[in-house]
Each structure stands twice: as C-alpha cells, then as structure tokens.
Amino acid sequence: MEAKSAFRLELEEVVQGRFLAKHPMYVAWSRGELSRQCMAGSMIENYHYVTRIYSAFFLIAAHAPPDVIEMEIENYHDEMNPEKPHPELFLRFIKACGGDPEAVKRGRGLPSTEFWTEWLIDLARDEPWQAAVAAIHIGSEFQAPGTIKSILPALREIYKFSEHDVEHFWLHAEVDVHHSGTAFEVLERHCRTREQKDMVKHYVAESVRRRWFFIDCIHLHYEKKLLS
C-alpha cells in the first residue's frame, strides 16, 4: 500500500479527535443498549440530511476542476442509484424499527438537522470548493465506515435485524470508504500551499464539531427526551 501523505495524516488526526464511534449514542448502540426509537430517530434525521445535501454536490462541481466534478457526479449517482436509492434504505430501516416511513417523508427533521445541512450547502455555494469537500467528505463521510462497523455486530447479533433491514449500514460501510478516499486524493492534488491546507483543516475540524452536535441532538431528543 502507498504510504499516506503528511497532509492526509493531519486531516485524519483532526477527525479522530472527535470520532463519532466514541459518541455516547453510538457506544450505547454498539452495546445493544440503545432504544429502537432512537435508532429510528437517527435514521430519520439522516434521511432529512441526505435528501437535502445533494444540491451541495452540484454547487461544489459548479466551481471545481474536472476531477472534482467527476467525483461529485459519481457521488450523486451512488447515492441515487435507481436500483438502490439510499434514502429508501433509510426508510426501510425506520420501518423495521417500528417507524412510519410516510410520516418521515412528510416531516422536516430537527432544527439541528436543518442547521447542519444548511451550513454545508452554504459552504458549497459561497466558499472555495475545497471547503465543502473537506466538510462533507472528510469531516462527515470519512467517519461513516468506522462508525457503522462499530454498530453492525449489535444490529445483527443483539437486535436481530435481517440483512435486508440493515442494508443501508453495510452498504455505506463500503461506499463511503471510496467516497472519502477520492476526496482525500483531490484535496492532496489541489491543495499545494500551506494556506490552502490550513483552510481545509479548519473546515474538517468545524465539520467534525458540528456533526458531533448533530448526533448530540438526536440522542437528546429521541433517547433522553431532553429536547422537544
């Protein structure tokens, strides 16, 4: 395997400082201690995030070089594959937890979900493309495979969900490795100055912080009943 660059290692270190697999919600989930209501709630909020974030892919592509445009179009096609559109996989798991997919589609999610999504879309529209790539694909997507792998054993062995019900999880554990890997490559290729690299580190750090808060609100609302 090719050795990781110093820049990539810097970015990974930023993410590891607040990696979601360490969040109390995911720790409880990995132990089989999280309620089905909260598991469904997590997918409800991720459904509202994912179905709104697609516009950011095209906003990034609008002012990015060809290899980044290709990456974002591929990301969109992966997420909206007509054979397995990823939002439908969220709804499938929500139903398996006892939730109502139709009510989810009519809903809007928590304000914290809206704030998280709007911040990313604003980045993609108003800042250099590297900022949104860093926030979406490194600060957020890069965390997905490790976080999902931490809870998949519990989903299968403790909660006893079928492979069909948890397809979203094992599919994203694979797909997001590719997405974030490509994002690291384009950032390494196009961020040549220390100023550019520091900007990317800033937006990775800010994304990790906001993503953690996004999960805080899910946990507090659906599990702890402390947010209404």
* Major sheet description: none
Name the shape in a single word: globular
| Rg over C-alpha atoms, rounded to the nearest angstrom | 17 Å
* Portion in helices: over 70%
Output the helix-strand order.
Answer: HHHHHHHHHHH
Please report the distance between the alpha carbons of the first and last residues.
48 Å
Low-confidence stretches: none
Word description of this protein:
By secondary structure, the protein is mostly helical. The radius of gyration is 17 Å and the shape is globular. Helix 3 (36-61) packs antiparallel against helix 8 (129-140). Helix content is 75%, strand content 0%. The chain has helices spanning 6-16, 24-30, 36-61, 66-79, 86-96, 101-106, 111-126, 129-140, 144-157, 167-190, 194-223. The relative contact order is 0.18.
Please tag this protein with its features:
mainly alpha, 11 helices, 228 residues, globular
Helix-strand layout with pairing:
Elements: H1 6-16, H2 24-30, H3 36-61, H4 66-79, H5 86-96, H6 101-106, H7 111-126, H8 129-140, H9 144-157, H10 167-190, H11 194-223
In short:
This protein is mainly α and 228 residues long. The chain has helices spanning 6-16, 24-30, 36-61, 66-79, 86-96, 101-106, 111-126, 129-140, 144-157, 167-190, 194-223.
